[in-house]
Amino acid sequence: MKFFNRFLVDVAYYLNNSVRYQHKKRFFYNLLENDEYRYKKYFDIFMSILILFSVSILIYEVKKEIPNYLNIFNVYVISIIFLIEYLLRFWVYSSISKVIMHQDEYSDLLNRDFDLLFVVKRVVRDKLEYVLSIKALIDLLAIMPFFHELRLLRIFILFRVFKLFRYAKSLQMFSSILSTKKFEFLTLSMFASMVVFISSVLIYVMEANNPNSPIDTLYEAFYWSIVTISTVGYGDVVAVSPEGQFVAVIVILTGISVLAFTTSLFVSAFTEKLEDIKEVKVVQDVSKLKSVYIICGYESIAKEVARKLLKSDYHVVILDDSKDRIDMAKKDGLLALNYNPGSIDSYKNLNINISTQVKAILCLREDDVENVYTALTVRSVIKDVYIMSLLMNNSNRNKLLSSGINELLYDKEFVGLVAREYVGHPVAFEAIHTIRSENSTIKLDEITVTERIASSVVKVSNLDNISFRIVLLGIYKKSTKRFFFNPIDDTLIETGDVLLVIGNFLFIEEFTKHLSMKTNLEDIA
Amino acid sequence: MKIVAALIFGYNEYGLEIAKNVTHKYDDITIFNLHESDNFLEHSEKFNIEHFDLSDDWDDLQNNYDLEKSKIFCALSDEAENIFLTISLRAAFRDIPIIALAKNSEDANKLHMAGASKVIPIVETSANIITDMLKKPIISEVLHNILYENSDLKIEQITVTKEEVFNGQFPADINWSRDHGIIIISIIHKDMSSEFIYSSKAKHNYISNGDILVTAGYEKDLDTFEKLIGG
A156 pLDDT band (50/70/90 cuts)? Predict the structure, then answer.
C-alpha cells in the first residue's frame, strides 16, 4: 500500500511540474471557463451552432424523414463532442494532483501516514460538486440522445437548448438578475401554489357532481384553476354552478394580483440591476481598448481634458467615487465608472492590463490629498505606468512627487507662464496660441520617422517639405534626445526621430502620406 | 514721475505666480489685496503689497502709475468680484490694457464684456497644456523651452520697417531658413489679420512696412534679421 501511495504522490508531483500538462489544462480551462480568453467566444459560438442545428433536426424529423448521415451526425458526432466537453469540464473543475500533494505535505509535516481515504473522499467531493451542479446536469442530459434507441431519450435534445445558457452571457445575466429576487419569487410561487391547490379542491367539490359541469376529475379542476389564475381563461372548461362561479370570481381576482406582483418583481429586479448591467457593459468595453487614458476625478479641468482627448479620438475612461460626477461624465458621452480611484479593487475590477493597455493615469481631482491617495494606490498596483497629476497647492509639491507621480501640473504656474509670454510678446503669443487652438487649420504637428520613412528619406534635403507648403521647425533626435532647430540640409534622419512641422493640417496629412509612399514608389521604380 | 509697473489685483497664488513671471519685464510690481485679513508676509519684500477696495476711487492709481505703459492683471479669487473690478477699471480708464483671469469660458465671456483686453481662462489653459503634453509631448517640450525657459532659441515679433529688403518677393518665395537662419511662423498685417507663410493669401501678398513677422530662431540670428528689416 505504501508503494502505491508513493507512486500516487510521485505521479501527482510529476503532473504538477509538467509544463506541457499544465499548459494543456490551462488552455482547456480558459477555453471552457475563462470569459476573458480571446478564443472562448469562438468556442461558444461553435457550440451554440451545434445546439441550434441539433434542435432544428429534432423539429424537422417530427413530420419528415431525415437523411441517415444527418441522423448520424446529430446523434453520434454532436453527442460525442458534448461528451468530450463534459469530460473536459470534469477534468479542469478541480485538480486531483493538488489534493494528493497537499495531503502528502500535510502528512509529512505532522509525521503521519499518507491518508489515501482522505484523498479519495476529497476528490470525490470536489468532482461530485461539479457533477451535481445544474449546468453539469444539463450537459449530461444533453448527451443522452446518444442512446437514440430509447426513443423517449430523444426529447433530451431539448436539454441542449438549456446548454445555450452556458454560451450566451446575456442569458446568464438574465438568470442572475432574476436570482436576486429569489426570496420574493419563492414567496409568490408558494402563494400561487396555495391558491391553485385550494381553488382546485373547491371547484372539484362544487362541480364534480354536477352533470352539466365539464369539471369531472381533480386533474380537470387543477387545469381550470391554472387557466383561471393566469388570467388566460380559454373557456373550454368553465364553472357552471353558482358556487363554482363564486370560486371563479375569487380565483380571477387573486390571479390579477399574482400577475401584477410577478410583473412588478421582474421590473424591480431589472431596474435595481440596470446600473450593474451598464457597468458590466462599460467594463467589457474598457477591457477591449488597446490604448486608454484613465482620468481619476471628473471636475472642471478633467472635464475639459476628457473632452479634448475624446475629440482627438483618444480612448478615455473616467473613474470617480461621486455618482453625480459620473452621471455627468456619462452624459458627456464618456466611458465612466462609479469606482473609487483610491481603491485597489477599482483597478482590479477594470479587468485591464494597465502596463500594456493604459497610456497614462491622470489624477485630475482638484484636491491634493485625493490625488496623493490615488497616485499611491496606482503605484501599489503597478510601478511603471505614467502618472500625471494636478497640483493645487504649491506647498504640497514634494508630497505629490514622493507619491510616485511622474508629472505635476500646477495651474497657477501655467497662468504665470501665459502672463509672462503675453507681457513679453503679445503678438507672437497670439500667433502661437492660434496655431495651437483646436479650430485652427494651421497646425504644429509631430511626424515620427518610421523605418519605412527612414529608408527613403536619408537627409533633410530629401524631405521635399516646401513643395507641400510645410515648414520644418526642427528635428527631435531620438538617439541624443535633443531638438535641432532649423536643421541643415545634410542632417541625417533616423528611425524614431520626430519631425516638428507647421502647415495646413491637410497638407501635413498629405506630406506624411508622401513620406511613407516614397519608399513604395522607389521600390516599384 | 509716474511709474511703469505691473499692477496685479489679487493677493493669491495666481497673483503671486503672475508677479514672479513678469519681473523680467517690470521693475515695479505691485500686488493689490482686497481682503486685509489675507497675510502673505513672505512676499512683502519682493513685491509692493497694497490694499484696495471696490469703491470707484482710483486716484492713487492714476497719480502714481503710467497706466498707458503699465499692465493691469485682474486675478481676484471671487469671480463676481473680479468681473466687478474689471468693469470698474475699464469705466475709469478707457485705454489701459487689462488682463483678467477667468475660471472657465462662461466667465471669460463676461470678462470680455466687462472690458478686459485679454482673458486667460484657467480651466481651458490648463486643459490645453495637459492635452498637448499627452498628444504632442515633443512639441510641448520644445515650445515650453522656447517660450518660457532661458534658451538661445526664441520666438520674437519683428515689425517690418524696410520693406525694400524683400525686393518685391512674395513671403513663400523667400528661403527664410537658409537665407536668414530663422523660421517665419506667421505674418500679422496692419489690420491685425494673421496668415501662415504658405497660405494662398501669403503667396500673393507682398510684405509691407508695418507688418509684424512672428519668427523663431536663435537670438543672434533674430537680432541680425531685426536689424536687416528694421525692427
Answer: low
- Which residue spans within A399-497 are E strands per DSSP? 407-410, 442-448, 471-477, 482-485
Compute how many other C-beta atoms are within 10 angstroms of the C-beta atom of residue A345: 10
Is the CB of residue A305 less than 8 Å away from at least one CB of chain B? yes
Q: Give me the domains of chain B, ranges plus CATH numbers.
A: 5-126 (3.40.50.720), 152-229 (3.30.70.1450)
Task: Say which of A390, A415, A483 has its CB closest to residue B142.
Answer: A483
- The pLDDT, as a whole number, for residue B1 is 67
A448 close to B165: Cβ distance less than 8 angstroms: no
pLDDT over 70 at B54, yes or no? yes
Residue A283 lies in a domain: no
Domain residues for the domain of A220 are 182-272
Could you say which of A237, A272, A307 is where a domain stops? A272
Q: Choose between B134 and A433: higher pLDDT.
A: B134
Same domain, A208 and A136: no
Q: Which of B17, B127, B133 sits opposite A415 (nearest CB)?
A: B17
Residue B204 to chain A, least CA–CA distance (Å) = 14
Q: What is the pLDDT of residue A304?
A: 93
Domain containing residue A304: CATH number: 3.40.50.720
Q: Which grid coordinates are listed for A184?
A: 420574493
Q: How many Cα atoms are found within 13 Å in the side-chain-facing hemisphere of A457?
A: 30
Q: Per the domain annotation, does A67 fall within a domain?
A: yes
Chain A hits for B173, CB-CB cut-off 8 Å, are none
Q: What are the pLDDT digits (tens) for A193-232?
A: 999 999 999 999 999 988 889 999 999 999 999 999 988 8
Q: Quick one: pLDDT at residue B230? A: 75
- Give the pLDDT band of residue A506 (cuts 50, 70, 90): confident
> Which positions ≥6 away from A194 have C-beta within 8 Å?
none
**Co-location of A345 and A318 in the same domain:** yes
Same domain, A6 and A141: yes
**Residue B174 contacts A, CB cutoff 8 Å:** no
What is the largest distance, in Å, between two alpha-carbon atoms of chain B? 63
**Residue B155 with chain A: CB contacts under 8 Å:** 425, 428, 432
Locate the chain A residue with the closest alpha carbon to B190.
Answer: A427
Whole-complex ipTM: 0.83
**Best of B18, B29, B132, B221 to mutate (most A CBs within 10 Å, chain A):** B18
Partner residue facing A305 (CB), from B21, B127, B214? B127
CA dist A444 to A343, A353, A487, B128, Å? 39, 33, 17, 14
Across the interface, which of B18, B123, B216 has its CB nearest the CB of A301?
Answer: B123
Domain count of chain A? 4
